[in-house]
Design brief:
This protein has 269 residues and is α/β, with parallel strands linked by helices. It has eleven helices and eleven strands.
């Protein structure tokens, strides 16, 4: 799919220091055939000011889509963005995940219409996260020896994903191990499953529900080996609604549901 561009959707909420590092990672991509859509779940004005500042010199378009702060509503803000996407493939990622320079190139080169791609992450320590947040940028194009030093210092939790060249695993239909750190799929597939299910409010399982419904359409899962994102440390979100969200995910799996109950169609009404 090297002739087509990619929509990179980044979720964020009141974390401008994280977002600055993440966007700087996308500024350093080896492949600029993409647009950025920032899914802002009610951040204050600091996030808008950061984005407006970066837009002036950023190498690719940045679209900032904001909704008012009414609790954790990641599914809803993503649906608002899906309504606007014109690119044929979407890369879903989070505002705490710094991309390495080849991430977009890997997802574009390996994209297909019969599967979605699930990526991995390398965890950054609390101490190094604090250090990085004191700077507006991070130089990500580093030699292996530099990453080895970070592993020996305990700044990252593993090294092997940073060594492997980007390649895909065989196709499977497993839901276990899916994370929201970076997942790409055809835009048409997101529309077919009616987007994210807005019944999921509060942290947890909205990504698993989306992935399950992609699998129910017949799409396969392929894991991306290599090209991980760097996951910044942060305190865990509240799990207050996780039990309810677990129950909704089980219902989706039991019914082999394809369409979100409260999704794109309902948002448009």
């Amino acid at each position: 799919m090297t002739a087509s561009s990619l929509a990179v959707v980044i979720s964020t909420y009141n974390a401008p220091h994280f977002l600055s590092l993440v966007l700087d990672g996308y500024r350093q991509q080896s492949d600029n055939h993409f647009s950025i859509y920032i899914a802002d779940d009610g951040s204050n004005d600091k996030t808008k000011k950061l984005i407006d500042k970066l837009k002036a010199y950023f190498p690719v378009p940045i679209h900032h889509v904001w909704q008012s702060d009414d609790g954790f509503r990641k599914a809803r803000i993503h649906n608002k963005i899906i309504q606007q996407i014109t690119e044929p493939h979407v890369l879903l990622t989070d505002g705490d995940c710094i991309p390495l320079p080849g991430l977009v190139a890997a997802h574009r080169r390996l994209a297909g219409n019969k599967y979605f791609i699930s990526g991995s992450r390398v965890l950054i320590s609390k101490t190094w996260t604090t250090t990085l947040c004191k700077r507006p940028t991070m130089h990500t194009n580093r030699p292996l020896s530099w990453w080895l030093q970070q592993r020996l210092k305990g700044n990252i939790n593993r090294l092997l994903p940073l060594i492997f060249p980007a390649r895909l695993s065989g196709a499977n239909d497993q839901l276990v191990g899916i994370r929201g750190c970076h997942l790409s799929c055809p835009t048409e597939a997101l529309i077919r499953i009616n987007g994210f299910d807005e019944q999921f409010e509060g942290w947890g399982r909205e990504d698993s529900d989306l992935t399950a419904r992609l699998l129910h359409t017949g799409l396969k899962r392929r894991n991306l080996r290599g090209a991980p994102v760097l996951h910044l440390w942060h305190q865990e979100c509240s799990r207050d609604q996780l039990q309810d969200n677990d129950a909704m995910l089980k219902e989706c799996l039991d019914e082999k549901r394809i369409e979100a109950i409260q999704g794109l169609k309902q948002l448009a009404e």
